[in-house]
Write a structure and sequence with these properties.
The chain is of the alpha+beta class and 117 residues long. The protein has helices spanning 46-61, 77-85; strands spanning 2-5, 10-14, 17-21, 25-29, 32-38, 65-69. The chain has one domain (2-103).
Amino acid sequence: MRCSLSPSGCGFATVDGSEDHTPDFLVLLPGTAVLVDVRPGHLIRDEDVVKFAAAQRAAAAVGWRYMVVTGWRRHVAGGLDALSARRRPMADCLGLHTESSAHRPATCPSSAHSDNA
């Protein structure tokens, strides 16, 4: 399993104009991927629901699953603290970001991405 924090965002059109949304995680599993947004249920607004729906459609278009996590069990908090403590700097192992490769830390395993893809 591999996890990308704050993967590339997506733009989409609504009846009110255009919007942007960047999901929180992209989790790569054998044979599939899961795009994940994390938002406490009581903080989800109507405009978030639209963004989540757009992210779900984008994920489905490329064969990925999508989920919104609205809360955690207590025993998960320690794991989340450990993950968030290591959020930055991060490597772009999948080549999803368009920034210069000079700004990417060279911490990706050589099998993480191929230039032949």
